[in-house]
Write a structure and sequence with these properties.
This protein is mainly β. It is built from one helix and 29 strands. The strands form seven sheets. Strands 8, 9, 10, 11 and 12 form a five-stranded antiparallel beta sheet that branches. The protein has a four-stranded antiparallel beta sheet with strand order 3-2-1-29, with no helix packed on it. Strands 4-5-6-7 form a four-stranded antiparallel beta sheet, with no helix packed on it. The longest helix is centred in the N-terminal third of the chain and has 26 residues, at 3-28.
């Protein structure tokens, strides 16, 4: 091979290699649209959160255009939860030493109390799949229990049973079944309340702690935390409480959040002085955690983004992570702190 042909051959190989690398880069970054400073949220996104900006706890809503206060009142409003269709928000109102359950439209209008003369506990309420009822933790007849209230008809029902505490209320995606954990004696167990039979079933019966139940998006599995058998971590079980098994041995700080496709579970893992935000991929059993503080994760409806609360200084703020690009953006910068984000369906 003469010198001219050799140079042409080498140039062709270099160009071919460059094209191959370019194709690989395009494939790896396909669909990746990292969040950008100044473009706070993806188009069409809306996120609720709470803040102390006006010296009391109030509910705010953020979209790509900015933030607005939805509850500018002298009372404390907290635990906002979107209805399944995204048209309303349920929340708690603290007034005169009592907490009440209230709802409002997505733009902050049409506020109304649904349960005025009953003490609502510091737990997020849960909407029924058809948005006709809301379940919440309450103190009724001097006992901790689960209360149901109609959004449109004004009636309220108190579930049978009595516990020292009650939390992590979740309505099944398709069935009239409500999950929660409750303490009786020295142990916490997971229970299921069926609305049409007005009956409660124990799903776990063990010494120790079983808590933070979370329905899978298809309603076929329940994720929960347990410290059973000296193996604390993330467990899965069938919806009747059978076949529990350890999915991931780990300390868990707060509730589990399934991704919309049911392939991942987000949670917080305690560390020294902080909590790492973790995402566990069920298929493949892989775990990815941040090295910075992160709690209360919420998935975007398409599963591409996670918004969460993080304390990286003197105050907690909201951060957004694009999982396809592993890019993170701070969403709130006020001096009062921002907490407990929730993504509009």
């Amino acid at each position: 091979m003469n010198m001219f042909r050799w140079r042409a051959y080498m140039l062709l190989r270099i160009n071919l290699l460059q094209w191959i690398l370019l194709i690989i880069l395009v494939v790896l970054t396909a669909g990746c649209q990292p969040v950008v400073e100044g473009q706070a949220l993806p188009a069409g996104a809306e996120i609720t959160f709470i803040s102390w900006r006006n010296k009391n706890i109030e509910i705010y809503k953020m979209n790509p255009a900015g933030s607005q206060n939805l509850t500018l009142t002298p009372h404390h409003e907290s635990y906002p939860v979107w209805s399944p269709d995204g048209s309303q928000l349920a929340f708690l109102v603290a007034e005169n030493g009592q907490q009440h359950l209230a709802v409002m439209d997505a733009d902050g209008s049409n506020k109304r109390l649904l349960a005025e003369n009953i003490l609502a506990l510091d737990e997020a309420p849960a909407w029924a799949p058809d948005a006709q009822m809301i379940a919440f933790a309450c103190v009724a007849e001097q006992r901790s229990s689960l209360c149901l209230v109609s959004v449109t008809r004004g009636w309220m029902q108190i579930m049978p049973g009595e516990w020292a505490s009650l939390g992590s209320i979740q309505w099944a995606p398709f069935d009239p079944i409500i999950l929660f954990h409750a303490m009786a004696g020295t142990s916490q167990d997971i229970f299921a309340y069926t609305t049409y039979t007005d009956s409660v079933r124990n799903l776990t019966y063990r010494e120790g702690q079983d808590l933070s139940p979370a329905w899978s998006p298809d309603g076929r599995k329940i994720a929960f935390y347990s410290n059973r058998n000296d193996h604390p971590g993330l467990y899965l079980m069938d919806i009747d409480g059978t076949y529990p098994y350890l999915l991931l041995e780990s300390n868990i700080q707060n509730a589990f959040r399934w991704s919309p496709d049911g392939k991942h579970i987000a949670f917080s893992q305690p560390a020294v002085g902080k909590n790492y935000l973790c995402v566990f991929q069920i298929e493949g059993q892989s775990l990815r955690c941040t090295q910075k503080d992160g709690t209360h994760p919420a998935w975007s409806p398409d599963g591409q983004f996670l918004v969460y609360e993080s304390r990286r200084g003197s105050h907690s703020h909201l951060y957004l992570t694009d999982l396809s690009c592993n890019e993170t953006l701070r969403l709130t910068k006020d001096s009062a702190g921002s907490f407990a984000p929730g993504w509009r369906p």
